[in-house]
Design a protein that fits this description.
By secondary structure, this protein is of the alpha/beta class. It has 2 domains: about 160 residues, VC0802-like (2-Layer Sandwich); about 180 residues, 3-Layer(aba) Sandwich (Rossmann fold). The protein has 10 helices and 15 strands. The protein has an 8-stranded mixed sheet. α1 crosses α6, α3 packs parallel to α4 and α6 packs across α7. The longest helix is centred in the middle third of the chain and has 15 residues. The radius of gyration is 23 Å and the shape is elongated. It starts with a strand and ends with a strand.
Length: about 350
């Protein structure tokens, strides 16, 4: 076990931290939460967990091993760095760089660039033969100013958000205005906690956003939609990213054509908003029927993660069908829609 830090996205106050915890649990890692600062999570965990988090996560930006956590005052910062055993994080004669990130304007009185230079000078002085290389360093020491504190660690992995833009709705072969963004789709797949070899089901597959993200993470995928052009469009998008499915079918999600307990988890975004998208059936009725019938398809203790309008009160709908509500995350879309990203467990 080691002290680890994760710089996460600031686009939601709750989703990024929940995603990291879900990945840790899905991958079978024990962990102890040390603290949660603004856009920073601190855990005690096996450092080998960083690799799957960096691979799977949509809302993590930087992962690393923590070296120090102190009040963001120059005196405390320099005293702590002088006492830190930096040499245990890098070898003699290795090159390094120091990078600082300020979260939401924290510690405005500290000059980030000057802090990088001064911390770099202390490291260079205390580690024999080391030298600064800003272009291609062998080691990167990453500092985060947040909530009046400085957290400094050895950066071991990062996630480039641009990859999700490259899989954005308009970059696909088949596009629909209601398509779930790739970043949120991947986060929701992680909240469902699929494990190696698991079958991920999306019974309202639409353009295939969830299936694409689950497939790129190496999980088996299967999808249905009640509209033929959606099924065909999903297949085109899956093909674009080289993903093979366990099956795609023209089917009503209220009557999923699967054997009992055949799916390991469900990730979906049921249609809502107009009678056209729900084929004339009310959104609440669609969800009521969905939960009643999906309980036969998913395995016990498996998770269902779905998006629904906050006004629908999907928590109550799921619980009436025997699902345990685990968490909800609310995302404002526009004046008439706030999404409830809800996670349930089949009991």
């Amino acid at each position: 076990m080691a002290g680890l830090f994760f710089l996460v996205s600031g686009e939601s106050p709750t989703l990024p931290s929940s995603e990291v915890r879900s990945i840790l649990e899905a991958e079978g890692f024990s962990y102890q939460i040390l603290s949660a600062l603004t856009q920073v999570l601190r855990f005690n965990a096996d450092p080998s967990c960083i690799k799957p988090i960096a691979f799977r996560s949509a809302m993590t930006r930087v992962c690393g091993i923590e070296i120090l956590n102190c009040k963001a005052s120059p005196t405390e910062i320099f005293e702590n760095i002088e006492m830190a055993e930096i040499s245990s994080f890098m070898g003699e004669s290795e090159t390094f760089a120091v990078r600082m990130r300020r979260v939401k304007g924290s510690s405005p009185g500290i000059d980030g660039l000057a802090l990088e230079r001064e911390v770099g000078e202390i490291i260079r002085r205390n580690v024999s033969g080391s030298r600064v290389d800003l272009e291609a360093p062998q080691r990167t020491f990453f500092g985060i100013l947040t909530d009046g504190r400085l957290l400094l660690g050895l950066k071991t992995a990062s996630v480039k958000p641009g990859e999700f833009l490259e899989r954005g709705p308009r970059r696909r072969m088949f596009f629909h205005s209601a398509a779930m963004p790739a970043k949120l789709a991947r986060c929701m797949v992680n909240l469902a906690q699929p494990r190696t070899g698991d079958l991920v089901l999306d019974p309202f597959c639409g353009t295939g956003s969830f299936l694409v993200e689950a497939g790129l993470m190496g999980f088996r995928v299967i999808g249905f939609d009640v509209k033929r052009y959606m099924v065909e469009g999903s297949l085109r998008n899956l093909s674009l990213f080289g993903i093979e499915t366990e099956g795609m079918a023209l089917a009503d999600a209220r009557r999923p054509p699967l054997n009992e307990m055949s799916a390991d988890c469900v990730v979906t975004d049921p249609p809502y908003g107009t009678s056209t998208t729900t084929l004339g059936v009310g959104t609440s009725d669609v969800l009521e029927s969905f939960f009643r019938n999906i309980s036969d398809v998913v395995k016990k203790e498996s998770r269902v993660c779905l998006a629904a309008p906050k006004t629908i009160k999907v928590k109550e709908i799921g619980e009436r069908s025997g699902f345990k509500h685990l968490e909800s995350h609310f995302i404002y879309i526009h004046r008439s829609l706030t999404r409830d990203i809800a996670v349930f467990e089949r009991e």
